[in-house]
Specification:
The protein is built from 25 helices and 16 strands. By secondary structure, it is α/β, with parallel strands linked by helices. Among the domains are: about 110-245, Rossmann fold, CATH 3.40.50; about 250-420, no CATH class; about 610-625 and about 655-828, no CATH class.
Length: about 850
């Protein structure tokens, strides 16, 4: 396989018209014996419902809404030949060695005919019997009889450790051809209603409501279920027929034992078999194992124990092994206790490779590794023949596409000491499976076929994880990290879920935060694919927090993208960053308090004066004044520039006004100015040179107002409430030299006397305390025609200015042109 130019069918890559990059020519024709670079990470893209999932083993899987161009085509049903090929691939492998004779199915003809009759009527039926009663053998024969009953034929499934959701997806992929496509719930149910088949389901592990869900999703299918009496029964409304399967009669048991031995029984062996029938309640598995004991007994009597029936020299049984004390014609038959629990005696007479395989199977909870893995696990090149030995002794039985220890065998071997080194065997298996599952040549489908053994290793090593030594890595964490992406790519999502949970627990116990964050991220993606949004949010937030602490930027980005998709699906905004209603710090000084209404607008709207006698002329306010926007969108430099411009306009307006009215003043204004200047005339007072209108508290008819000033050096505010004359005696509007924005100044009463002094105004020294903030005034109304002044009293109220810290220069109290954010005006 070329890792640089992979085929279109490998690892989910469909080619897509991408031309592989050509290799540079070699400079020398000599072969390259250098080590190859590590293979690239195996990434697979698949469609799950409405999502496009990219399984990334490095940084975590990425999920997004599936684009229309990536949507798979509608799945089509497999042909009869394709279904037969898929069924053949799903069967357990044939054990190596000579073929074992097939044992007849005795005393099961009535049950066989009854099952076929019920299935032909379209009824679903459950076959109930204890473990070892021959249910699997009976199902095989019934499936052959029902091959032509349904348009989609017979579909064989195994329910060992599978949920109803898993079986629905297994049935879909068994009938339809949909590579790298896991349909959503609604789409899945739509396709399942089109399936008309006889579904043979062995080792059913659930009943009740879960079974009702399975039956309701497939109304055109007839189910043949097989379960033990411990499994919950179907509900009364399901309409499933119950067919019990009991043990064999004594004569049938003796007949089965003769077929297993391959000869007729002696009188002593018949009496021994009668006692065994009473002890085992007629279970066929016990008679098959008893036949293996008699065959071993025959070999011992013949003195052929050094050579096994496969033609390979086997290790002689130890001297203290049960049944090995006599090798002559006087070898007694096994006792009744040994016949009732024959596993230790049968194992003691097997080869060393077979016994080592049993130790691995006991350590893995009864799961027997595939025969291709036995040479690497056991350390013997001929260890694959051990599976044939175990199958001939009926110590293992087929379960789906694999083998497991037969019923009762794990407990018997544990009592014999085969579980003493279970943890060491599990660590050895973890090391092997980690290397194998991560190899580029191993497809995800092959890893999924070995999922039960891998998960069994994780169940042993997960709780036993501990912080590894320096330079080492936790075996459980490494195995879960390697196998979980393969389970996801192979669409075995129940195994993916269990691997992620086992890996997260192992990483937590080992103190590996980086790997724990990966497992939480994958659990969040899996929950999102399954529609469990609350679970997905919790897992993704935990992963993002861990990766943020580790400064894992790529992983954090992948987690935030998935979390954003969760928020989009649930309609709940993310709790990341400031909320929309929170105030953003503006460019005002640190000592200026915020108004009660929140952050003020950058350019507050002008307010109409209290007296209608004023004639104002305003320039067009900026867009921010119309929109009422705040300081959130304004940069600090923009505010400083606006304040500087407003100050310049205020100074120019003051000079022009003083020049026009210097000869008409009745009194020197500088003599009436208080100690402190007006807070509205400061340079850096934060109000951008805006005057705040205030009403006179005395209610005078002249409309005289007081200018609020900062507190003086003795803590008393200074005021300027002396009347000042208007700019002109005629009351006409004077032209404005500049179009600077300003707020309306306070109304001043006109004086009938001519000015008594032409002395220019003076300014006072700046104060050392910052002025206080002032509240914004209401928006004024533009007027184009002069109005007659009226004697409306105004009230003086102290106000503060939004000023920054620092002194503010004073300006004359009779200044009529001021800078503000609303426009330019002159008082007539």
């Amino acid at each position: 396989m070329d890792p640089n130019n992979r085929g279109p069918e490998e690892y989910g890559h469909d080619g897509g018209g991408h031309t592989p990059r050509p290799r540079p020519p070699r400079e020398s024709p000599a072969p390259d014996f250098s080590q190859h670079l590590p293979a690239l990470a195996r990434t697979v893209q698949l469609v799950s419902g409405d999502f496009l999932l990219t399984v990334n083993p490095v940084d975590g899987s990425e999920i997004e809404v599936c684009p229309p161009t990536e949507r798979p085509a509608a799945p089509v049903k497999r042909t009869a030949a394709e279904r037969a090929e898929a069924e053949r691939a799903a069967r357990p492998p044939v054990p190596p060695g000579p073929a074992q004779p097939a044992l007849p199915l005795l005393a099961r003809q009535d049950e066989r005919e009854q099952l076929v009759r019920l299935l032909a009527r379209g009824r679903s039926v459950r076959l109930t019997g204890p473990a070892g009663s021959g249910r699997t053998r009976l199902l095989d024969l019934v499936a052959e009889d029902c091959a032509d009953l349904a348009p989609d034929g017979v579909v064989r499934l195994n329910g060992f450790g599978r949920t109803a959701e898993d079986l629905l997806h297994d049935l879909f992929h068994a009938v339809f051809s949909a590579s790298l496509h896991r349909p959503g719930r609604d789409e899945l149910l739509t396709h399942l209603r089109e399936i008309g088949a006889v579904v043979v389901l062995d080792d059913l592990a659930f009943g009740g409501g879960a079974l009702d869900e399975l039956l309701e999703a497939t109304p055109e299918c007839a189910f043949l279920l097989s379960a033990t009496p411990e499994v919950p029964a179907p509900s009364a409304a399901s309409g499933v027929e119950e067919v019990p399967l009991a043990g064999l009669e004594r004569a049938d048991g003796l007949d089965l034992l003769e077929h297993a031995v391959g000869r007729s029984l002696t009188e002593e062996e018949s009496n021994w078999a009668g006692d065994l029938w009473f002890e085992s309640e007629g279970l066929p598995l016990r008679f098959v194992q008893a036949g293996a004991l008699l065959r071993q007994h025959d070999r011992l009597r013949a003195g052929t124990g050094a050579v096994d029936e496969f033609g390979v020299f086997e290790d002689a049984p130890p001297a203290d092994a049960p049944g090995a004390h006599d090798l002559g014609d006087g070898v007694p038959l096994p006792s009744l206790a040994e016949a009732a629990a024959p596993a230790p005696l049968l194992a003691a007479r097997l080869s060393a490779s077979a016994r080592a395989t049993l130790r691995f199977a006991v350590a893995l909870g009864g799961e027997v590794p595939h025969q291709a893995h036995l040479p690497a696990l056991v350390g013997d090149t001929h260890a694959d023949a051990a599976l044939g030995e175990l199958a001939a002794c009926a110590l293992v039985c087929p379960v789906g596409s694999r083998y497991r220890l037969a019923a009762g065998v794990p407990a018997q071997l544990e009592a014999a000491g085969y579980a003493d080194e279970a943890e060491a065997a599990a660590r050895s298996a973890a090391q092997h499976y980690s290397w194998w599952a991560g190899h580029p040549s191993v497809t995800p489908e092959r890893v999924c076929a070995e999922a039960d053994a891998i998960l069994a290793v994780l169940s042993v090593l997960g709780p036993a994880s501990r912080p590894p030594a320096e330079g080492e890595e936790s075996a459980g964490v490494y195995l879960a990290r390697t196998a979980a992406p393969a389970f996801a790519a192979g669409l075995h999502w129940s195994a993916w879920d269990r691997a992620l949970r086992g890996g997260a627990e192992a990483a937590r116990l080992a103190g590996d935060v980086a790997e724990e964050s990966y497992f939480h991220h994958e659990l969040g993606v899996l929950a999102l694919c399954g529609g469990r949004l609350d679970r997905a949010r919790a897992e993704l937030e935990a992963a993002i927090g861990m990766r943020g602490a580790l400064s894992d930027k790529r992983g954090t980005v992948a987690g935030r993208r998935a979390l954003a998709l969760v928020a989009d699906r649930s309609g709940t905004p993310l709790g990341i960053g400031p909320a929309a209603h929170e105030e953003v710090p503006d460019a005002r000084g640190e000592q200026s308090p915020s108004p009660a209404g929140g952050v003020p607008a950058a350019f507050p709207a002008l307010q109409p004066p209290s007296s209608p006698a004023l004639v104002t002329h305003r320039s067009t306010p900026p867009p921010s004044a119309k929109a009422g926007g705040g300081l959130k969108g304004m940069a600090r430099r923009n505010l400083v520039a606006s304040g500087a411009g407003a100050l310049l306009v205020a100074v120019l307006g003051t000079v022009v006004t003083l020049g026009a009215t210097s000869d008409n003043e009745p009194a020197t204004p500088s003599d009436r100015v208080g100690v402190n200047p007006s807070a509205s005339q400061g340079v850096d007072d934060g109000s951008l040179g805006a005057d705040q209108p205030a009403e006179d508290g005395n209610g005078g008819a002249g409309g005289v107002t007081s200018r609020p000033t900062d507190p003086g050096p003795y803590g008393r505010p200074g005021t300027s409430d002396d009347p000042t004359p208007t700019d002109g005696p005629s009351g006409s509007q004077a032209p404005s030299d500049s179009a600077s924005p300003s707020r309306p100044s306070s109304p001043k009463p006109t004086s009938p006397k001519p000015p008594a002094s032409t002395k220019p105004p003076t300014s006072t020294k700046p104060t050392t305390k910052p002025p206080t903030s002032s509240t914004p005034a209401p928006t004024p109304t533009d007027s184009s025609e002069p109005s007659t002044p009226t004697s409306t009293p105004t009230t003086t109220s102290p106000s503060t200015s939004d000023s920054a810290s620092g002194p503010a220069p004073s300006t004359p109290a009779n200044t009529t042109a001021s800078a503000s954010q609303g426009g330019t005006e002159q008082v007539i």
